[in-house]
Amino acid sequence: MGLSGEKVIHVEIKSPGEGFLDIFGVKKYELAKVCPDVVQSVQLLEGEWGAIGCRIHSHLFLVRSVLISEESSIIAIDKENKSLIYNIIGGDIMNEYNKMHVKIQVTSQGETNFLTWTLTLVRKYEEGNENGVNPEGVLVDFVTRLTNSIDAHFLKEKN
User: Is 4-158 assigned to CATH 3.40.640.10?
Assistant: First the structure.
């Protein structure tokens, strides 16, 4: 039986949070153009971009030069709370997990804005994988690089 739990990652952002909700929702296809060092490609398999139930296939540089595939589906959109939730349903990333949900939410603490990632994970194995890699540490690094790359793009676009 694997371990389960929740990992919350707060990444400070300087650009408006609404842009992040757009790019992870109705404009996810732009990720490969916005941050090619993190996302190689994004393809809509079923449904409409940003709609609940749409299926998306992505190729991601999870670790700087290691390309993996990921298939996901939007399961919830909450415009009032500025969040959306993806269910990861396939691809290489599921080699480590039985279940994975990713919640992306724009949050604020005082004058500081954050993109808050909540990863709900059920691991297949109690320990790290056979390579001794800590998958959660890799995911934290990935979402931080992805967020920072998108934020830099939005700030550059603004100027």
Answer: no
